[in-house]
Design brief:
Length: 292
């Protein structure tokens, strides 16, 4: 039995995100994603003027006559939310934690998908995949997705992005629109992203907090890595320490963004001190220009 206060919170999130979807992002989701996916329909003999990139070489070799693949627009999409629940997400210096921001953004995406009669699935991971909710439709299903993203209690603390993407490829047979929601405080995920982006339309949702880029001048403080537990004593009154901290954060984010670009993964950047709706608008408009 789900506690009453939990259900009330889920309802509040659903109402708030439904408002965002219906009144602010109305039509944006459908214009960006509907009609972008294609699925195999049939083959026929090649005729002059056909796109040679669509030649089916297996059928051509078997019959001795050039054949091409015919594709049909997919009318139904599968949206996968691949959500990082590692310990570094339980941090925030403004009015909410990074994982709370990620949860509400996932709720917006889930409500958008359900509203457009698409399926939604969920993968929650840390240093291993901890929860898989198969794609489905309907109001009850989207409420479950919102509940799991908000209240799932992970066992692990680390971040294994390659493991999560490998799991995604194993459980999804068709191409999906995949939102990888993470702070990307991890290493060695480029190859996994490249493989996943060839099979799916992968969008990286990078979640951050302003305190990750700038330390306040508050003297000596102990700083603990949420995922490893390692503690370091830092003198924040030392300007060079603050500058080194900021420089490291900039380098980490630049490396992440370069990795996303190299693997042809679009990015949505959200931070705990700014409205995420603005960044969603930027992403949707960029996609609309691309497919115009």
């Amino acid at each position: 039995m789900i506690p009453t206060e939990v259900m009330q919170q889920i309802r509040r999130i659903q109402i708030r995100t439904s408002h965002v979807v219906n009144d602010i992002l109305a039509g944006q989701y459908e214009s960006v994603f509907k009609g972008q996916g294609m699925e195999f329909k049939e083959v026929r003999e090649y005729v002059p003027g056909d796109d040679i990139r669509m030649i089916d070489y297996n059928v051509t070799a078997r019959t001795g006559t050039p054949h091409i693949k015919l594709l049909a627009e997919e009318r139904e999409l599968t949206v996968m939310l691949v959500v990082d629940a590692s310990a570094s997400g339980r941090f925030g210096s403004v009015d909410r934690f990074k994982n709370e921001l990620a949860a509400e953004l996932c709720a917006v995406l889930a409500v958008s998908a359900i509203k457009n009669h698409d399926k939604v699935g969920l993968i929650i991971f840390t240093d291993e995949v901890e929860l898989y909710v198969p794609p489905s439709k309907g109001r009850r299903h989207v409420l479950r997705v919102i509940r799991e993203v908000l209240y799932f209690e992970p066992k692990g603390r680390g971040t294994d992005i390659p493991g999560a993407l490998h799991f995604l490829n194993g459980v999804t047979k068709r191409r999906s629109v995949t939102f990888l929601v993470s702070d990307f405080m991890a290493d060695d995920y480029e190859n996994a992203l490249r493989v996943a982006s060839k099979r799916h339309d992968v969008i990286g949702v990078a979640v951050s907090d302003p305190r990750e880029f700038a330390l306040p001048d508050v003297g000596l403080v102990w700083v603990r890595d949420a995922e490893t537990g390692r503690e370091v004593l830092m003198d924040t009154a030392d300007k060079s320490v603050r500058e080194a901290y900021a420089k490291k954060a900039i380098h980490r984010n630049r490396k992440r963004d370069e990795t996303l670009r190299r693997t042809r993964v679009d990015a949505i950047h959200v931070t705990t001190d700014k409205p995420y709706v603005d960044e969603l608008f930027r992403f949707f408009r960029m996609r609309e220009r691309r497919y115009a």
